[in-house]
Request: fold
Amino acid sequence: MKNKYSIFSLIKNAFSYHENWEKAWKDPEPKKEYDAVIVGGGGHGLATAYYLAKKHNMKNIAVVEKGWIGGGNTGRNTTIIRSNYLWDASAGLYDHALKIWEGLSQELNYNVMFSQRGVMNLAHNLQDVRDLKRRTHANRLNGIDAVYLNTEEVKKFCPIINTSQDIRYPVLGGTLQRRAGTARHDAVAWGYARGADEMGVDIIQNCEVKGIKRNGDTVEGIETTKGFIKTKKIGVVAAGHSSVIANMAGLKLPLESKPLQALVSEPVKPIIDTVVMSNAVHAYVSQSDKGELVIGAGTDDYVSYSQKGSHDIVEGTLNAILELYPIFSRMRMLRQWGGIVDICPDASPIISKTSIKGLYFNCGWGTGGFKATPGSGDLFAHTIANDEPHKLNAAFNINRFVSGDLVDEHGAAAVAH
Amino acid sequence: MFLINCPFCGEREQSEFKAGGEAHIIRPKQPTELSDDEWAEYLFMRKNIKGVQFERWNHVHGCRKWFNMVRDTSNDQIKAVYKMGEKPPVKKNV
Reply:
């Protein structure tokens, strides 16, 4: 049993100069065999392991990660959490996640710094206005809080926005989801890792998957840089590298992996206390607790695994940011980076069984996976443990690309993908 | 960002181009006879290779012509550029 984090443990450890905190997770060598192996130690993978152990009593499991946990897209996103998606299936999926976020720090005994500061999506032309109003109504029918704001209300909610009607893309209105917000990305991975480790899950870092061993249409185990691991169930949560793992098993996925960039400014005093996203000009901004502006850019249109993006994408985003927030014109950007996002043709994820028995994929989250981390883990764990999907992820099966029953969130999900 | 040697215009910045995805996917000769699985394969399934990939590009802010390119997607290095209809100048499985 791990020591509970509390004000008392903080005081107690202060007396020993914080040098005697116990390790949040072990660093084990892989066993020869597990009941299930999760490939990918990001937020989604660690959450999957956590819920497999907690809700489905599968404790003899491992998470294998080629680098360090939370070092991929979990550590590279702009930490926005919201559930204001248009379609019923998406609304169900993302609001399931949002509800778990609301109690996650308490459940994990780990402060994930979930901050319901609201997410506002802007409309810049009449079609945006119609789309956003339609989405607001759809959200409310699905029990998701959403309100439509006119230009004055947008200005009132976030006073630094330039609401002049003379700019290239004037603000005509916006939607607001007050329950939405941000969380601390690393803490989510670390909190789930600590919780999973406590229940006996082996978290194996620096362990890259090199092959998937099959016997006919059934998986037998995985080849890794730390040797062969026998298992009957493999859950792949490898984000941008999902196709690489799929190719090892002889599968093809409907994915393209593309660079998505983000950047942060130098830290400044609190200036923006919410998250503002703009679909049409593709710029979104929030402020971290350290004071940095966190700015998300768009994806490049070509396949790349290089974790670098094009400069013109960043330039386009900053043009839009400066027009909407002239106050930021003297800000200096501190860091810029790219992550590799796996995008489905319909911009919705896949949480699904495959044609190979014992092989499960959780991928295709594209540009918006962070917000779904707890819900994705919970539903993927259900799918792996029961060998069938939960009703909330049934629509996100891989066969939708054969049946044509797509969950077409492209452009409908409040932000361009 | 990288430079692309358009086979019609010469070397230009990548931002002038639009990526058109995986190349050499052959359009079905008799679409009416395809099964749903074959349609899904043609329309949606992609190799999405980490490594040397054959792909289509369009010089959309230049000559607006389509061409093919061989590129290593792990480091964005371009191996070859060739016109539509031409055989790839490098072997597959490079």
About this structure: Chain A touches chain B at residues 241, 243-244, 247, 252-257, 300-306, 308-312, 342, 345, 401-404 (CB under 8 Å).
